[in-house]
Design a protein that fits this description.
2 domains, four-stranded mixed beta sheet, 233 residues, alpha+beta, 8 strands, four-stranded antiparallel beta sheet
Length: 233
């Protein structure tokens, strides 16, 4: 028996759309899909990507750095725009110290945001539509800018499907899940004749999504302890 050494299997957007229609029983006998069918498939595929992009996935967790400016509290970030900022750490001498995350109301309730620059100890991330704004409190001082840097962990946006030859911005393990969930979405526009097949597609899509989301987690344990700072004795 010969076993392949390749693990690079992938599919283009066109192949994914074609396979999703075949799940619906369309195109299985060799009849070509129309241009409108491909357009509907690519549009629904992008909508599915956008929905999944609003969730945490291991492969969209990204590391970056933030260039600070003395006396500046807010920093616009757009390339790529973080969906969520998980953590911000100041770095000096190779040692990282995490900043505490603030809620929106807490940050904007601060009376002094940039009048007394110092070492930032807290941050708030405001994910607006096109760009995000990362706020530091207090604003960094000139000494901080000269001596320390900021590392940022965030969720990046997933890439769109622009052309029919584009591949998914996802691991190959997601291909089948995407195909069946795309077929389930398309079924409202291209309904199957047998209600049992429609129910099977819906169940299969949901099961694949559930199982893959369960896999898409860190295997390491997470340890927590209460923060007793500021508690009265």
């Amino acid at each position: 028996m010969t076993v392949s050494t390749s693990t690079a299997f992938t599919m283009t957007a066109n192949q994914i759309v074609t396979r999703a229609f075949k799940v619906l029983g369309i195109g299985t006998e060799g009849e070509p899909l129309t241009s409108n069918m491909y357009a509907d498939g690519l549009e629904d595929l992008n909508l599915l990507i956008k929905t999944l992009g609003a969730q945490d996935h291991l492969w969209i967790r990204t590391e970056g750095t933030l260039a600070t400016v003395a006396g500046q509290a807010g920093y616009t970030v757009s390339n790529p725009k973080p969906m969520r900022v998980q953590s911000v750490r100041r770095v000096v001498g190779g040692v990282e110290t995490p900043l505490n995350e603030m809620a929106r109301d807490t940050y904007f309730a601060q009376p002094n945001k940039s009048l007394s620059p110092s070492i930032p100890t807290q941050f708030y991330y405001d994910p607006q539509q096109a760009t995000g704004v990362l706020y530091l409190w207090p604003a960094p001082s000139a000494q901080f800018v000269a001596e320390q840097t900021l590392n940022v962990s965030f969720w990046r946006r997933m890439a769109d499907i622009v052309t029919s030859s584009d591949e998914l911005d996802m691991p190959q393990e997601w291909l089948q899940t995407i195909i069946w969930n795309l077929a389930n979405d398309l079924e409202t526009q291209y309904p199957v004749n047998d209600v049992r097949i429609a129910q099977k597609i819906e169940r299969r899509a949901a099961l694949l999504m559930r199982d893959l989301k369960n896999f898409d987690n860190e295997p390491a344990s997470l340890y927590m302890q209460p923060d007793r700072q500021g508690l009265m004795r």
